[in-house]
Design brief:
With 379 residues, this protein is of the alpha/beta class. It has 2 domains: 188 residues, Glycogen Phosphorylase B (Rossmann fold), CATH 3.40.50; 186 residues, Rossmann fold (3-Layer(aba) Sandwich), CATH 3.40.50.2000. Helices cover 45% and strands 15% of the residues. Strand 10, helix 12 and strand 11 form a beta-alpha-beta unit.
Length: 379
């Protein structure tokens, strides 16, 4: 099939669409991209949608990016695609794709619902949520295929539209697997090599400090660790709950706070740690997702510790450690246990990498999407 990746998505911030497109390419499909990143984060997009006095900024920039996409398509001088894949945060882009390619199969990567995300971040009732809900509904109607990441998110699609939905876990980009592979003695091993047991347990978190990530739970867990517990933390990112997370963590030594790490440098940095933390929020949205960080941390060869939710259990199976959501005491106990059992940590690292290598690469994930695209194109 001739497949066009299309939209204002940002691969560096949100690698999901890259995983899908690279997976389709790995299966032998003819994939090209037309991409003009909008440059606004998820939080900025949701905020501006609910604040008319700011929305003009999005409209102005979106118009410029759309003009670039239209010009780019004309310059490509290619036959019309058989299918168009609109990348993450493409609620508006799917409408443009439908106008440009009215008789083509359009797939929308609906990784988040706008209304659900706003609700998770504190919005309640009123015009804003109704507008965002309407935006979600229009985006779904414009698409021929709707790509979700969990069965729980599938349940948010109107029942009459679910026949067009396909569930594809988020997965991890291939470059996240590079550091463990580079350490293999003969270049062929599919599991990370052992690390020395000496020194503290190194734990990393990276994210946007949103409520679903539950970072205050991490902060409170850090404060509850015994003073002599040999654990070091690297906390990367900024966002809504950062200040509260820092307040709860207190002044415990061995905690490093980083505002930003370049995307190209992040996989190696994560690999240098023993444990990658997932999410720990107790919100409704937190119970419906499997976050990209657990897929990426597993691909980097880290042991995974995350909240015990149905979608994460399905994705990770017995290759991760699970604690109850929003339970700092349980998280502190689990990290303390791992700090005292480095053999278990190494076993978890190998199990997580093995799970990622077998299940989380784009080429392993996209077969259902390709089948759906072919079915729609043939029908």
């Amino acid at each position: 099939m001739r497949i066009l990746g299309f939209g204002t998505y940002d691969r560096d911030r949100h690698p999901r669409v890259g995983i899908l497109l690279e997976g389709l390419r790995a299966l032998g499909e003819d994939v090209v991209e037309l991409n003009a990143p909008l440059g606004f984060s998820t939080a900025e997009r949701v905020a501006m949608l609910g604040k008319p006095w700011l929305a003009h900024r999005m409209a102005t920039r979106l118009a410029r990016r759309w003009a670039a996409l239209v010009r780019g398509w004309r310059r490509l001088d290619r036959p019309p695609p058989d299918a168009v894949v609109v990348g993450y945060l493409g609620h508006f882009d799917v409408g443009l794709a439908r106008m440009l390619f009215p008789r083509t199969v359009i797939a929308l990567d609906l990784l988040i619902f706008a209304a659900d995300t706003a609700r998770d971040r504190g919005a309640s009732g009123g015009l804003k949520l109704r507008l965002l809900g309407a935006l979600d509904a229009v985006a779904v109607r414009c698409a021929s295929v709707v790509i979700l990441d969990t069965d729980e998110h599938l349940s948010l699609v109107p029942e009459r539209q679910r026949n067009k939905a396909v569930v594809i876990p988020v997965g991890a980009p291939d470059y996240w697997f590079a550091a463990p592979r580079a350490e293999a003695d003969d270049g062929t091993d599919t599991e990370p090599t052992a690390k020395p047991d000496a020194g503290p347990l190194r734990v990393i978190f990276f994210g946007l400090y949103t409520p679903l990530q539950g970072t205050p739970t991490i902060g409170a867990a850090i404060a509850q660790l015994a003073p002599d517990c040999a654990i070091e933390f690297t906390m990367i990112g900024s966002g809504q709950d950062l200040a509260e997370t820092k307040r709860l963590a207190g002044a415990r030594p061995g905690v490093r706070w980083l505002d930003w790490v370049e995307p190209a440098e992040l996989p190696q940095l994560v690999h240098e740690h023993d444990v990658c933390l997932g999410i720990f929020g107790g919100t409704d949205k937190a119970l419906r997702v499997t976050p990209n960080k657990v897929f990426q941390g597993a691909a980097a060869g880290c042991a995974i510790v995350t909240s015990d939710t149905a979608p994460q259990r399905r994705a990770l199976g017995d290759s991760a450690c699970f604690v109850p959501p929003a339970d700092p005491a349980a998280l502190a106990r689990e990290l303390t246990r791992l700090a005292g059992d480095r053999t278990e940590v190494q076993a978890l690292r190998e199990a997580a990498y093995r799970r990622a290598d077998e299940n989380f690469r784009g080429s392993k994930l996209v077969a259902p999407l390709l089948a759906a695209l072919r079915e729609k194109a043939a029908g």
